[in-house]
Design brief:
Structural class: alpha+beta
Strand content: 15-25%
Strand order of the largest sheet: 18-19-17-16-20-21-22
Shape: globular
Oligomer: single chain
Number of helices: 19
Length: 486
């Protein structure tokens, strides 16, 4: 018997409404509606267009209703760290700031005037990034914070708009850098130090919490029945994606590859110590209160920004063409450190890469293929360094790396990564976030017994490509060069 679910998956580049069907121990996914997620730029600021995104989601729900299927549930997942503020009347407050908005630099200064980094990390176990929610909130005006009566992560905010139940799911709460993973509660200490209004932070609920049916007016508008249940699965997209890793046994790591690359392991308890802080790792919470010990890496954002810049200059390249050009470019001509802060803000990415190469005495890439080759090789080397740090922190030897998400379709990057990390890379599924969203709905509703059973379903549903490492002598030399980069 088939059971159908709807997964609203909001990414930094696009959103989509996916139909997930579990039948006979396998999961299939179908995209019902995809839409761009285009930030609003103006007056030196960057915002998300949340009303437009919700309108697009409703358009997808109308398409779902037209299919006439009996949907068991719907859940929204999204990127982390950003947040929606609602006023006393339940209205969304504008603007919703983008994590790449330049105000975050002032937020860091404001926060450090009241507390210090060791205190923040000891309370939260979350890595330092200026875009973290804590620093964003430190950049807010006191008047706006006093007006706000409710704060929600983006995924939780959309679930609230769907059903009217206001809560924040733990995987999303853990990205705010205001959650204590040992106490399993909001950090009242940090909120007091930073002067944040405690009352606006809602109840934290476990992943897989059932929130209730669709709002009657939304059901009437979209044509879906009010009985379709809204669930808080893992509202943070990485939490959902890790659920769908088709792994078994131990000694594996994951890489959720997209705009951001998130590399880590699944642990029963957080690791909060000096070494973890110095390596700048993060302890985010997953299903069943597992811990995702991981590092956020800039990822394919650099490629996306290069493509956008070239398109603005009249040179259109799709991702497949850029990968083909990179595959024909000479290897190891130039390397960058993708973790360099200059590569985080948008704009002029090819020029930033050229400047980094000049500053480090390397040849400047002179065409798109050479530029993308430089980026992909550098990402693979950063993955290798990160994996070694994971092994040091966990005292565990990693034997295979699972790559999931859209980046898992990049065959060249998969090969470069296998070469760099010196172990087999297992690629797929590409739609891991939506798959995890659906599987968590099924667990919450009693249709799938456990996380282990969900991963059994993923292994039965996924054709994984395994890439073995090669060309080790050249990569050993490249690793030595990479270590010396600033």
């Amino acid at each position: 018997m088939s059971t159908h679910y709807l997964a609203a998956d909001l990414g930094a580049e696009s959103g989509r409404l996916m139909l997930g069907t579990i039948d006979g121990g396998t999961l299939s996914l179908e995209e019902l509606h995809r839409f761009p997620n285009t930030p609003i730029k103006g007056e030196g600021s960057l915002h998300w267009n949340i009303p437009a995104l919700f309108c697009e989601l409703k358009a997808g729900l109308k398409k779902a209703a037209a299919r006439g299927l009996p949907y068991a549930g719907i859940s929204t997942d999204s990127w982390g760290v950003d947040y929606l503020l609602f006023d006393a009347g339940g209205e969304l407050m504008s603007p919703t700031f983008h994590y790449r908005d330049p105000r975050t630099a002032q937020g860091v200064k404001n926060a450090y005037a009241k507390t210090d980094w060791p205190t923040i990390f000891a309370e939260t176990g979350i890595q330092y990034m200026p875009l973290n929610t804590l620093f964003q909130l430190a950049a807010e005006s006191s008047a706006r914070l006093q007006q706000a009566k409710l704060i929600l992560g983006v995924g939780d905010g959309f679930n609230y708009l769907l059903c009217g139940k206001a809560c924040i799911e733990v995987s999303m709460a853990s990205t705010f850098q205001l959650y204590n993973p040992v106490a399993r509660a909001w950090s009242d200490r940090l909120m007091k130090l930073l002067g944040l209004p405690r009352a606006m932070f809602p109840e934290i609920v476990p992943s897989g919490t059932r929130l209730g049916g669709l709002k009657p007016e939304l059901a009437a508008e979209t044509g879906l029945p009010h009985s379709v249940e809204v669930l808080a699965t893992c509202s943070h997209d990485t939490g959902a994606a890790v659920v769908a890793v088709p792994a078994s046994g131990e000694n594996w790591a994951y890489l959720s590859s997209g705009t951001w690359s998130l590399m880590g392991v699944e642990l029963p308890e957080p690791i909060i110590n000096d070494a973890c802080r110095e390596f700048n790792f993060t302890n985010e919470i997953g299903h069943g209160h597992t811990v995702r010990l991981l590092k956020n890496i800039v990822g394919l954002w650099i490629v996306q920004e290069c493509r956008r810049e070239w398109a603005a200059q009249g040179h259109e390249h799709d991702y497949a063409e850029l990968t083909r050009l990179a595959s024909h470019a000479a290897p190891f001509v130039s390397l960058i450190n993708p973790a360099d802060a200059r590569f985080v803000p948008p704009g002029e990415m090819p020029a930033k890469i050229a400047a980094y190469c000049r500053e480090t005495g390397q040849p400047v890439p002179d065409n798109p293929g050479a530029t993308i080759r430089c980026v992909l090789e550098s990402l693979a080397l950063l993955y290798a360094r990160t994996l070694k740090q994971i092994e040091q922190l966990t005292r565990r030897k990693i034997e295979r790396l699972h790559i999931v998400g859209g980046g898992s379709k990049n065959v060249l990057l998969n090969q470069l990564t296998a070469n760099a990390v010196e172990m087999p890379v297992v690629a797929g599924p590409a739609e891991a976030t939506a798959a995890g969203n659906v599987l968590l709905q099924a667990i919450a509703l009693g249709h799938v017994a456990s996380l282990a059973a969900a991963r059994d379903i993923m292994r039965s549903s996924t054709v994984s490509a395994i890439t073995e490492p090669s060309n080790q002598l050249a990569w050993a030399s490249a690793r030595g060069r990479f270590v010396r980069l600033p």
